[in-house]
Amino acid sequence: MKLIASLTLVFFSAVAHAAGPAAAVAKPDLAKGEALFGGACVACHAVGGKSVIPANPKLAQQHPEYLIKQLQEYKSGKRANAIMQGFAAGLSDEDMRNIAYYLASQKINPGFASDKALAALGERIYKGGIADRKVPACAGCHSPNGAGIPSQNPRLGGQHAEYIEAQMKAFRDGVRLNNLQMSQVAAKLNDREIKAVSDYIAGLR
């Protein structure tokens, strides 16, 4: 009986040891991420995710957790965009991780506010919200310099104002439905306020 017990213990120990490395999450492969990104994404988002087209977001230096979440939601249909849904459909979870961590390793190109007066209004809303309408300060979730909070809220600083404006209107108008909190905040803002916040965000570093 002792011999059987000993052999059983050795067997299960060996199995557990063999299963250990396989159960671990593989380290992201940045080279594979770069290759995947260069094969399809670069046309819209530019080399390294440093988009120069105002309608297409800069992806460089974005939190990988956020990028993975967005790709997963495009793939599931929770976030709608025909081009992105088509691209995400062919990606595995591993592909998404590799792309996301590659982009996170890239440095974002700084942006600029285009209208001083408009950006001043945007700064007031971004830092202090709008108390009488219960609009919270954007800085509370996205940080004072727009760096965001990893795994929770995306980096916004330096993003194209046109893209930010379009997304906030999409949240407000029920076009983008994958973040209830943003939909509720955007619902309380008018076009000028959205434009102001977007312009201010573009100049954050």
Short description:
With 205 residues, the protein is mainly α. The protein is 58% helix and 0% strand.
Please explain how this structure is put together:
There is one protein chain. This protein has 205 residues and is mainly alpha-helical. It has two domains: 30-104, Cytochrome c-like domain (Cytochrome Bc1 Complex, Chain D, domain 2); 116-202, Cytochrome Bc1 Complex, Chain D, domain 2 (Orthogonal Bundle), CATH 1.10.760. The chain contains ten helices and no strands. The chain has helices at 2-23, 30-45, 64-76, 82-89, 93-104, 116-128, 139-142, 161-172, 180-186, 191-202. Helix 2 (30-45) crosses helix 5 (93-104) and helix 6 crosses helix 10. The radius of gyration is 22 Å and the shape is globular. The N and C termini lie far apart (69 Å).
